[in-house]
Amino acid sequence: MRAKCSHCVRVSTARELGVSGLQELIAQFYVKPDNLAIRYGMRFEEALEQELLANLSDKVKMPQERTLDATLELMNEGVPVIYQGVLQGGSGAMAFSGRPDFLLRSDYRFEFGSSGLTARQVDGWNGGYTAWDAKLSSTPKPEYQVQVGLYADVLRELGYAAEQNHGLILGSRELAAFAVETLIAQMVQDRNAYLKKVFSFIDEDPQRVEDIGELICDASSYCDICEYPELCDHARREANHLQLVAGITRPQIESLHRSGVKTLAQLATREEPTDKLSQEQVQKLARQARLQQHTYDTGEHIVEVINAAELEKLPAENPGDIFFDLEGFTFFGEPGGLEYLFGYTSIDSGEEFHADWADTRDQEREIFEKFMHDLMNRLQTYPDAKVYHYANYEQAALKKLAERYGSYQHEVNELIDKGVFVDLYKIVKAAIMISQESYSIKKLENYYSFARASDVKEAMGSMEYYDKYLDAFDGDETLAENLKRQVIAYNQDDCASTLALTRWLRSLVNRDV
Fold it and tell me: Are residues 57 and 194 in the same domain?
Protein backbone atom coordinates (compact mmCIF):
# COMPACT_ATOMS: atom_id res chain seq x y z
CA MET A 1 0.00 0.00 0.00
CA ARG A 2 2.83 2.39 0.84
CA ALA A 3 4.38 1.70 -2.57
CA LYS A 4 1.81 4.19 -3.90
CA CYS A 5 3.73 6.92 -2.05
CA SER A 6 6.91 8.01 -3.89
CA HIS A 7 8.30 9.48 -0.66
CA CYS A 8 7.99 6.15 1.17
CA VAL A 9 9.58 4.33 -1.76
CA ARG A 10 12.61 6.61 -1.88
CA VAL A 11 13.16 6.71 1.89
CA SER A 12 12.80 2.94 2.33
CA THR A 13 15.02 2.20 -0.68
CA ALA A 14 17.66 4.66 0.56
CA ARG A 15 17.49 3.01 3.99
CA GLU A 16 18.22 -0.41 2.45
CA LEU A 17 21.03 1.07 0.37
CA GLY A 18 22.64 2.43 3.53
CA VAL A 19 22.66 6.07 2.39
CA SER A 20 24.96 8.02 4.71
CA GLY A 21 23.21 9.90 7.50
CA LEU A 22 19.71 8.56 6.76
CA GLN A 23 19.53 5.97 9.52
CA GLU A 24 20.50 8.56 12.13
CA LEU A 25 17.87 10.96 10.76
CA ILE A 26 14.94 8.58 10.58
CA ALA A 27 15.77 7.08 13.99
CA GLN A 28 14.77 10.45 15.50
CA PHE A 29 11.29 10.21 14.01
CA TYR A 30 10.51 6.49 13.98
CA VAL A 31 7.02 5.60 15.17
CA LYS A 32 5.74 2.04 15.11
CA PRO A 33 2.45 2.06 13.17
CA ASP A 34 -0.28 1.44 15.74
CA ASN A 35 -3.88 2.51 15.54
CA LEU A 36 -7.36 1.08 15.98
CA ALA A 37 -7.60 -0.06 12.37
CA ILE A 38 -4.36 -2.06 12.67
CA ARG A 39 -5.30 -3.50 16.07
CA TYR A 40 -8.81 -4.50 15.07
CA GLY A 41 -7.50 -5.95 11.82
CA MET A 42 -5.16 -8.18 13.83
CA ARG A 43 -7.96 -9.17 16.18
CA PHE A 44 -10.14 -10.10 13.20
CA GLU A 45 -7.38 -12.26 11.77
CA GLU A 46 -6.80 -13.95 15.15
CA ALA A 47 -10.54 -14.59 15.55
CA LEU A 48 -10.63 -16.32 12.16
CA GLU A 49 -7.64 -18.45 13.14
CA GLN A 50 -9.36 -19.55 16.34
CA GLU A 51 -12.59 -20.38 14.49
CA LEU A 52 -10.70 -22.53 11.98
CA LEU A 53 -8.81 -24.31 14.74
CA ALA A 54 -12.06 -25.01 16.59
CA ASN A 55 -13.88 -26.18 13.45
CA LEU A 56 -11.10 -28.14 11.71
CA SER A 57 -8.75 -29.16 14.53
CA ASP A 58 -5.57 -30.81 13.20
CA LYS A 59 -6.39 -29.84 9.61
CA VAL A 60 -5.13 -26.35 10.50
CA LYS A 61 -1.45 -25.75 11.22
CA MET A 62 1.06 -22.93 11.59
CA PRO A 63 4.72 -23.45 10.56
CA GLN A 64 6.96 -24.19 13.55
CA GLU A 65 9.31 -21.50 12.26
CA ARG A 66 8.43 -18.34 10.34
CA THR A 67 10.35 -19.44 7.24
CA LEU A 68 9.64 -20.40 3.66
CA ASP A 69 11.11 -23.89 4.19
CA ALA A 70 8.81 -24.57 7.15
CA THR A 71 5.81 -23.38 5.10
CA LEU A 72 6.78 -25.55 2.13
CA GLU A 73 7.09 -28.51 4.49
CA LEU A 74 3.44 -28.12 5.54
CA MET A 75 2.33 -27.76 1.92
CA ASN A 76 4.22 -30.91 0.98
CA GLU A 77 2.47 -32.70 3.84
CA GLY A 78 -0.85 -31.58 2.36
CA VAL A 79 -2.10 -29.67 5.41
CA PRO A 80 -5.55 -28.33 4.39
CA VAL A 81 -5.21 -24.88 6.02
CA ILE A 82 -1.87 -23.19 6.80
CA TYR A 83 -1.87 -19.90 8.72
CA GLN A 84 0.96 -17.45 9.39
CA GLY A 85 3.11 -18.99 6.68
CA VAL A 86 5.93 -17.27 4.77
CA LEU A 87 6.29 -16.87 1.02
CA GLN A 88 9.39 -15.62 -0.80
CA GLY A 89 10.26 -15.24 -4.46
CA GLY A 90 7.92 -14.43 -7.32
CA SER A 91 8.32 -13.47 -10.96
CA GLY A 92 9.50 -9.90 -10.38
CA ALA A 93 13.01 -8.52 -10.77
CA MET A 94 13.19 -8.32 -6.98
CA ALA A 95 12.21 -11.14 -4.64
CA PHE A 96 8.98 -10.59 -2.73
CA SER A 97 8.66 -11.68 0.89
CA GLY A 98 5.36 -11.76 2.72
CA ARG A 99 3.07 -13.64 5.08
CA PRO A 100 -0.34 -14.64 3.72
CA ASP A 101 -2.92 -15.00 6.45
CA PHE A 102 -4.11 -18.35 5.09
CA LEU A 103 -3.01 -20.89 2.49
CA LEU A 104 -5.89 -23.20 1.55
CA ARG A 105 -5.42 -26.56 -0.14
CA SER A 106 -7.00 -26.51 -3.60
CA ASP A 107 -9.60 -29.20 -2.83
CA TYR A 108 -11.02 -27.16 0.08
CA ARG A 109 -13.31 -24.10 0.08
CA PHE A 110 -13.71 -21.55 2.83
CA GLU A 111 -17.23 -20.83 4.06
CA PHE A 112 -18.94 -19.22 7.03
CA GLY A 113 -21.22 -21.31 9.19
CA SER A 114 -22.93 -21.02 12.54
CA SER A 115 -19.59 -21.59 14.29
CA GLY A 116 -17.67 -19.08 12.17
CA LEU A 117 -15.09 -19.64 9.45
CA THR A 118 -14.53 -23.20 8.31
CA ALA A 119 -13.49 -25.07 5.17
CA ARG A 120 -14.96 -28.13 3.47
CA GLN A 121 -13.44 -30.56 1.05
CA VAL A 122 -15.08 -30.48 -2.38
CA ASP A 123 -12.93 -32.50 -4.80
CA GLY A 124 -9.55 -34.15 -5.31
CA TRP A 125 -6.27 -32.41 -4.49
CA ASN A 126 -3.91 -31.53 -7.34
CA GLY A 127 -1.04 -30.37 -5.14
CA GLY A 128 -1.84 -26.64 -5.23
CA TYR A 129 -2.86 -23.98 -2.71
CA THR A 130 -4.82 -20.74 -2.85
CA ALA A 131 -3.82 -17.62 -0.90
CA TRP A 132 -6.27 -15.70 1.31
CA ASP A 133 -5.89 -12.52 3.32
CA ALA A 134 -8.18 -11.29 6.10
CA LYS A 135 -9.24 -7.64 5.85
CA LEU A 136 -11.55 -5.90 8.28
CA SER A 137 -12.92 -3.80 5.42
CA SER A 138 -16.36 -4.58 3.98
CA THR A 139 -15.06 -4.11 0.42
CA PRO A 140 -12.23 -5.83 -1.49
CA LYS A 141 -10.13 -2.74 -2.17
CA PRO A 142 -7.74 -2.84 -5.15
CA GLU A 143 -4.63 -2.69 -2.94
CA TYR A 144 -5.89 -5.75 -1.03
CA GLN A 145 -6.30 -7.64 -4.29
CA VAL A 146 -2.74 -6.69 -5.29
CA GLN A 147 -1.49 -8.15 -2.02
CA VAL A 148 -3.18 -11.49 -2.73
CA GLY A 149 -1.84 -11.30 -6.28
CA LEU A 150 1.70 -11.12 -4.87
CA TYR A 151 1.12 -14.28 -2.85
CA ALA A 152 -0.44 -16.07 -5.83
CA ASP A 153 2.52 -15.09 -8.01
CA VAL A 154 5.02 -16.54 -5.52
CA LEU A 155 2.97 -19.74 -5.24
CA ARG A 156 2.98 -20.07 -9.02
CA GLU A 157 6.75 -19.58 -9.25
CA LEU A 158 7.24 -22.17 -6.50
CA GLY A 159 4.94 -24.61 -8.31
CA TYR A 160 2.22 -24.61 -5.65
CA ALA A 161 -0.41 -22.25 -7.11
CA ALA A 162 -3.92 -23.65 -7.49
CA GLU A 163 -5.95 -22.53 -10.46
CA GLN A 164 -9.00 -22.07 -8.26
CA ASN A 165 -9.95 -18.61 -7.02
CA HIS A 166 -7.76 -16.88 -4.44
CA GLY A 167 -9.14 -14.02 -2.41
CA LEU A 168 -10.08 -12.01 0.66
CA ILE A 169 -11.97 -12.75 3.86
CA LEU A 170 -13.80 -9.50 4.61
CA GLY A 171 -14.83 -7.91 7.88
CA SER A 172 -18.44 -8.28 6.78
CA ARG A 173 -17.78 -12.04 7.01
CA GLU A 174 -18.07 -12.47 3.30
CA LEU A 175 -15.60 -14.06 0.87
CA ALA A 176 -14.35 -12.10 -2.15
CA ALA A 177 -12.81 -14.55 -4.62
CA PHE A 178 -10.88 -13.69 -7.79
CA ALA A 179 -9.40 -15.64 -10.68
CA VAL A 180 -5.68 -16.17 -10.19
CA GLU A 181 -4.87 -14.80 -13.66
CA THR A 182 -6.76 -11.58 -12.93
CA LEU A 183 -5.07 -11.09 -9.57
CA ILE A 184 -1.58 -11.62 -10.95
CA ALA A 185 -2.20 -9.39 -14.00
CA GLN A 186 -3.40 -6.54 -11.77
CA MET A 187 -0.48 -7.03 -9.42
CA VAL A 188 2.15 -7.08 -12.19
CA GLN A 189 1.00 -3.69 -13.44
CA ASP A 190 1.41 -2.15 -9.98
CA ARG A 191 4.64 -4.01 -9.30
CA ASN A 192 6.21 -2.81 -12.55
CA ALA A 193 5.43 0.80 -11.63
CA TYR A 194 6.96 0.29 -8.19
CA LEU A 195 10.10 -1.42 -9.50
CA LYS A 196 10.55 1.30 -12.09
CA LYS A 197 10.66 3.88 -9.27
CA VAL A 198 13.06 1.77 -7.22
CA PHE A 199 15.51 1.03 -10.05
CA SER A 200 15.39 4.62 -11.26
CA PHE A 201 16.34 5.79 -7.76
CA ILE A 202 19.11 3.19 -7.49
CA ASP A 203 20.50 4.43 -10.82
CA GLU A 204 20.78 7.90 -9.29
CA ASP A 205 23.34 6.38 -6.90
CA PRO A 206 22.29 8.36 -3.82
CA GLN A 207 25.14 8.91 -1.36
CA ARG A 208 23.76 11.48 1.09
CA VAL A 209 20.40 12.35 2.63
CA GLU A 210 20.25 15.38 0.31
CA ASP A 211 20.29 12.99 -2.68
CA ILE A 212 16.97 11.44 -1.63
CA GLY A 213 15.07 14.61 -2.47
CA GLU A 214 12.15 16.11 -0.60
CA LEU A 215 11.49 14.14 2.60
CA ILE A 216 7.79 14.88 2.37
CA CYS A 217 5.09 12.52 1.12
CA ASP A 218 2.84 13.85 -1.62
CA ALA A 219 -0.24 12.00 -0.35
CA SER A 220 -1.30 11.48 3.26
CA SER A 221 -3.42 8.39 2.53
CA TYR A 222 -0.82 6.01 3.92
CA CYS A 223 0.57 8.02 6.84
CA ASP A 224 -1.30 5.85 9.35
CA ILE A 225 0.64 2.76 8.21
CA CYS A 226 4.00 4.52 7.86
CA GLU A 227 6.89 4.55 10.32
CA TYR A 228 7.88 8.14 9.49
CA PRO A 229 4.87 10.50 9.50
CA GLU A 230 6.69 12.72 12.00
CA LEU A 231 9.66 12.97 9.63
CA CYS A 232 7.25 14.23 6.96
CA ASP A 233 5.71 16.76 9.32
CA HIS A 234 9.10 18.02 10.45
CA ALA A 235 10.32 18.40 6.86
CA ARG A 236 7.06 20.02 5.80
CA ARG A 237 7.42 22.75 8.42
CA GLU A 238 11.13 23.21 7.82
CA ALA A 239 10.39 23.76 4.12
CA ASN A 240 7.30 25.97 4.68
CA HIS A 241 5.67 23.53 2.27
CA LEU A 242 2.50 24.23 0.30
CA GLN A 243 0.90 21.17 1.93
CA LEU A 244 0.46 23.34 5.03
CA VAL A 245 -2.12 25.48 3.23
CA ALA A 246 -5.59 24.57 4.50
CA GLY A 247 -7.69 22.85 1.86
CA ILE A 248 -5.06 22.80 -0.88
CA THR A 249 -5.11 19.79 -3.19
CA ARG A 250 -2.31 17.75 -4.70
CA PRO A 251 -3.03 18.91 -8.30
CA GLN A 252 -3.03 22.52 -7.11
CA ILE A 253 0.36 22.03 -5.44
CA GLU A 254 1.76 20.44 -8.60
CA SER A 255 0.49 23.32 -10.74
CA LEU A 256 1.96 25.91 -8.36
CA HIS A 257 5.29 24.06 -8.33
CA ARG A 258 5.43 24.20 -12.12
CA SER A 259 4.95 27.97 -11.92
CA GLY A 260 7.86 28.30 -9.48
CA VAL A 261 5.83 28.60 -6.25
CA LYS A 262 7.38 26.17 -3.78
CA THR A 263 6.56 27.58 -0.33
CA LEU A 264 3.60 28.91 1.57
CA ALA A 265 5.34 32.29 1.86
CA GLN A 266 5.79 32.46 -1.92
CA LEU A 267 2.15 31.59 -2.47
CA ALA A 268 1.12 34.37 -0.09
CA THR A 269 2.37 36.97 -2.61
CA ARG A 270 1.18 35.22 -5.78
CA GLU A 271 -1.45 36.93 -7.93
CA GLU A 272 -1.04 35.40 -11.41
CA PRO A 273 -2.82 32.27 -12.66
CA THR A 274 -0.94 29.03 -13.37
CA ASP A 275 -1.28 26.45 -16.12
CA LYS A 276 -4.19 24.79 -14.30
CA LEU A 277 -5.42 27.43 -11.83
CA SER A 278 -7.37 30.56 -12.65
CA GLN A 279 -6.42 33.90 -11.16
CA GLU A 280 -9.41 33.67 -8.81
CA GLN A 281 -8.31 30.24 -7.57
CA VAL A 282 -4.73 31.39 -7.01
CA GLN A 283 -5.88 34.51 -5.18
CA LYS A 284 -8.08 32.45 -2.86
CA LEU A 285 -5.21 30.08 -2.04
CA ALA A 286 -2.86 33.06 -1.63
CA ARG A 287 -5.24 34.68 0.83
CA GLN A 288 -5.32 31.51 2.92
CA ALA A 289 -1.52 31.34 2.77
CA ARG A 290 -1.16 34.98 3.89
CA LEU A 291 -3.36 34.37 6.92
CA GLN A 292 -1.42 31.29 7.96
CA GLN A 293 1.96 32.93 7.41
CA HIS A 294 0.84 35.78 9.65
CA THR A 295 0.09 33.31 12.44
CA TYR A 296 3.38 31.47 11.90
CA ASP A 297 5.24 34.80 12.13
CA THR A 298 3.36 36.42 15.02
CA GLY A 299 1.37 33.73 16.83
CA GLU A 300 -1.76 35.86 16.35
CA HIS A 301 -4.94 34.06 15.24
CA ILE A 302 -6.85 36.10 12.66
CA VAL A 303 -10.13 35.68 10.80
CA GLU A 304 -11.46 37.40 7.70
CA VAL A 305 -15.06 37.48 6.49
CA ILE A 306 -15.07 36.65 2.79
CA ASN A 307 -18.84 36.37 2.25
CA ALA A 308 -21.05 38.18 4.73
CA ALA A 309 -24.17 37.02 2.87
CA GLU A 310 -23.45 33.43 3.95
CA LEU A 311 -23.26 34.50 7.59
CA GLU A 312 -26.55 36.33 7.23
CA LYS A 313 -28.20 33.02 6.32
CA LEU A 314 -27.74 31.88 9.91
CA PRO A 315 -31.17 31.90 11.61
CA ALA A 316 -31.67 34.04 14.69
CA GLU A 317 -31.26 32.16 17.95
CA ASN A 318 -34.40 30.26 18.97
CA PRO A 319 -34.95 28.97 22.51
CA GLY A 320 -35.71 25.54 21.05
CA ASP A 321 -32.35 25.25 19.24
CA ILE A 322 -30.12 22.30 20.10
CA PHE A 323 -26.41 21.78 19.46
CA PHE A 324 -25.84 18.19 18.49
CA ASP A 325 -22.88 15.79 18.34
CA LEU A 326 -22.78 12.03 17.75
CA GLU A 327 -20.01 9.62 18.70
CA GLY A 328 -19.63 6.46 16.61
CA PHE A 329 -17.38 3.41 16.80
CA THR A 330 -16.29 2.13 13.40
CA PHE A 331 -14.94 -1.18 14.75
CA PHE A 332 -18.13 -2.50 16.30
CA GLY A 333 -18.47 -6.24 15.77
CA GLU A 334 -21.16 -5.85 13.11
CA PRO A 335 -21.01 -4.03 9.74
CA GLY A 336 -21.85 -0.35 9.79
CA GLY A 337 -20.33 0.55 13.15
CA LEU A 338 -22.22 1.59 16.28
CA GLU A 339 -23.51 5.09 17.07
CA TYR A 340 -22.94 4.75 20.78
CA LEU A 341 -23.47 8.28 22.11
CA PHE A 342 -26.13 10.86 21.29
CA GLY A 343 -25.33 14.19 22.92
CA TYR A 344 -26.83 17.65 22.61
CA THR A 345 -26.97 20.95 24.46
CA SER A 346 -30.32 22.74 24.77
CA ILE A 347 -30.79 26.39 25.77
CA ASP A 348 -34.52 26.78 26.55
CA SER A 349 -33.91 26.26 30.28
CA GLY A 350 -30.38 27.55 30.37
CA GLU A 351 -27.52 25.56 28.86
CA GLU A 352 -28.33 21.94 29.59
CA PHE A 353 -26.50 18.86 28.30
CA HIS A 354 -28.34 15.65 27.38
CA ALA A 355 -26.61 12.33 26.67
CA ASP A 356 -27.74 8.78 25.89
CA TRP A 357 -25.35 5.82 25.64
CA ALA A 358 -25.55 2.49 23.78
CA ASP A 359 -23.47 -0.69 23.92
CA THR A 360 -25.65 -2.89 21.72
CA ARG A 361 -27.72 -2.68 18.54
CA ASP A 362 -30.94 -2.74 20.58
CA GLN A 363 -29.70 0.15 22.71
CA GLU A 364 -28.56 2.01 19.61
CA ARG A 365 -32.08 1.79 18.19
CA GLU A 366 -33.52 2.87 21.53
CA ILE A 367 -31.40 6.03 21.85
CA PHE A 368 -31.89 6.92 18.17
CA GLU A 369 -35.66 6.68 18.48
CA LYS A 370 -35.61 8.57 21.79
CA PHE A 371 -33.62 11.39 20.15
CA MET A 372 -36.01 11.59 17.21
CA HIS A 373 -39.07 11.44 19.49
CA ASP A 374 -37.71 14.24 21.68
CA LEU A 375 -36.76 16.30 18.62
CA MET A 376 -40.21 15.99 17.06
CA ASN A 377 -41.81 17.07 20.37
CA ARG A 378 -39.40 19.99 20.62
CA LEU A 379 -40.37 21.14 17.13
CA GLN A 380 -44.00 21.06 18.16
CA THR A 381 -43.17 23.55 20.91
CA TYR A 382 -40.60 25.53 18.90
CA PRO A 383 -41.50 25.21 15.18
CA ASP A 384 -38.55 27.38 14.08
CA ALA A 385 -35.92 25.59 16.15
CA LYS A 386 -32.78 24.29 14.46
CA VAL A 387 -30.33 21.45 15.11
CA TYR A 388 -26.79 22.79 14.78
CA HIS A 389 -23.85 20.46 14.18
CA TYR A 390 -20.37 20.62 12.61
CA ALA A 391 -19.72 18.66 9.37
CA ASN A 392 -21.99 16.08 7.77
CA TYR A 393 -21.47 13.12 10.09
CA GLU A 394 -24.63 13.64 12.13
CA GLN A 395 -26.96 13.88 9.13
CA ALA A 396 -25.39 10.85 7.44
CA ALA A 397 -25.57 8.81 10.64
CA LEU A 398 -29.24 9.65 11.24
CA LYS A 399 -30.09 8.61 7.68
CA LYS A 400 -28.19 5.36 8.18
CA LEU A 401 -29.95 4.59 11.47
CA ALA A 402 -33.38 5.42 10.07
CA GLU A 403 -32.75 3.00 7.21
CA ARG A 404 -31.19 0.36 9.46
CA TYR A 405 -34.23 0.21 11.72
CA GLY A 406 -36.95 1.27 9.29
CA SER A 407 -37.83 3.96 11.81
CA TYR A 408 -38.34 7.73 11.39
CA GLN A 409 -37.12 7.55 7.77
CA HIS A 410 -39.67 10.07 6.50
CA GLU A 411 -39.09 12.41 9.42
CA VAL A 412 -35.28 12.39 9.10
CA ASN A 413 -35.38 13.10 5.37
CA GLU A 414 -38.04 15.78 5.75
CA LEU A 415 -36.19 17.60 8.54
CA ILE A 416 -32.97 17.59 6.50
CA ASP A 417 -34.77 18.78 3.36
CA LYS A 418 -36.49 21.58 5.27
CA GLY A 419 -33.20 22.86 6.69
CA VAL A 420 -33.86 21.99 10.33
CA PHE A 421 -30.33 20.59 10.49
CA VAL A 422 -27.72 23.31 10.05
CA ASP A 423 -24.20 22.22 9.13
CA LEU A 424 -21.96 24.97 10.48
CA TYR A 425 -18.94 23.63 8.59
CA LYS A 426 -20.56 24.59 5.28
CA ILE A 427 -21.22 28.09 6.58
CA VAL A 428 -17.67 28.46 7.91
CA LYS A 429 -16.11 27.37 4.61
CA ALA A 430 -18.35 29.67 2.57
CA ALA A 431 -18.21 32.73 4.82
CA ILE A 432 -14.82 33.12 6.51
CA MET A 433 -11.12 32.38 6.32
CA ILE A 434 -9.00 31.60 9.37
CA SER A 435 -5.25 31.49 9.80
CA GLN A 436 -5.18 27.76 10.59
CA GLU A 437 -3.96 24.65 8.78
CA SER A 438 -7.42 23.09 8.99
CA TYR A 439 -11.01 24.13 9.57
CA SER A 440 -11.79 21.59 12.28
CA ILE A 441 -13.91 22.85 15.15
CA LYS A 442 -10.86 22.44 17.44
CA LYS A 443 -8.94 24.97 15.31
CA LEU A 444 -11.89 27.37 15.28
CA GLU A 445 -11.92 27.37 19.07
CA ASN A 446 -8.87 29.66 18.92
CA TYR A 447 -11.27 32.43 17.88
CA TYR A 448 -14.04 32.16 20.42
CA SER A 449 -11.84 31.32 23.41
CA PHE A 450 -13.43 27.99 24.18
CA ALA A 451 -11.66 25.99 26.87
CA ARG A 452 -12.24 22.25 26.81
CA ALA A 453 -12.65 20.44 30.10
CA SER A 454 -12.26 16.88 28.81
CA ASP A 455 -8.97 14.97 28.68
CA VAL A 456 -10.01 13.58 25.28
CA LYS A 457 -8.87 15.98 22.56
CA GLU A 458 -9.82 14.49 19.18
CA ALA A 459 -12.57 12.36 17.65
CA MET A 460 -10.16 9.47 17.10
CA GLY A 461 -9.18 9.92 20.72
CA SER A 462 -12.78 9.34 21.76
CA MET A 463 -12.74 6.09 19.78
CA GLU A 464 -9.55 5.04 21.59
CA TYR A 465 -11.24 5.74 24.92
CA TYR A 466 -14.33 3.81 23.86
CA ASP A 467 -12.12 0.89 22.81
CA LYS A 468 -10.51 0.90 26.27
CA TYR A 469 -13.99 1.09 27.77
CA LEU A 470 -14.99 -2.06 25.88
CA ASP A 471 -11.88 -3.86 27.14
CA ALA A 472 -12.69 -2.87 30.73
CA PHE A 473 -16.44 -3.46 30.44
CA ASP A 474 -16.52 -7.07 31.64
CA GLY A 475 -13.59 -6.97 34.04
CA ASP A 476 -13.19 -3.58 35.70
CA GLU A 477 -16.47 -1.74 36.20
CA THR A 478 -14.83 1.21 37.92
CA LEU A 479 -12.37 1.79 35.07
CA ALA A 480 -15.10 1.30 32.47
CA GLU A 481 -17.33 3.86 34.16
CA ASN A 482 -14.46 6.35 34.40
CA LEU A 483 -13.67 5.97 30.69
CA LYS A 484 -17.35 6.33 29.83
CA ARG A 485 -17.53 9.60 31.80
CA GLN A 486 -14.50 10.93 29.94
CA VAL A 487 -16.03 10.19 26.54
CA ILE A 488 -19.30 11.83 27.60
CA ALA A 489 -17.34 14.86 28.85
CA TYR A 490 -15.64 15.08 25.44
CA ASN A 491 -19.02 14.96 23.73
CA GLN A 492 -20.34 17.64 26.07
CA ASP A 493 -17.36 19.83 25.11
CA ASP A 494 -18.18 19.34 21.43
CA CYS A 495 -21.81 20.31 21.95
CA ALA A 496 -20.90 23.38 24.02
CA SER A 497 -18.30 24.35 21.42
CA THR A 498 -20.92 24.07 18.66
CA LEU A 499 -23.12 26.49 20.59
CA ALA A 500 -20.21 28.90 21.11
CA LEU A 501 -19.28 28.67 17.41
CA THR A 502 -22.85 29.46 16.33
CA ARG A 503 -22.97 32.58 18.47
CA TRP A 504 -19.51 33.68 17.34
CA LEU A 505 -20.47 33.34 13.68
CA ARG A 506 -23.53 35.54 14.27
CA SER A 507 -21.27 38.13 15.88
CA LEU A 508 -19.31 38.39 12.61
CA VAL A 509 -22.28 39.40 10.47
CA ASN A 510 -21.58 43.12 10.60
CA ARG A 511 -17.82 42.79 10.64
CA ASP A 512 -15.93 44.48 7.81
CA VAL A 513 -14.27 42.25 5.23
Answer: yes
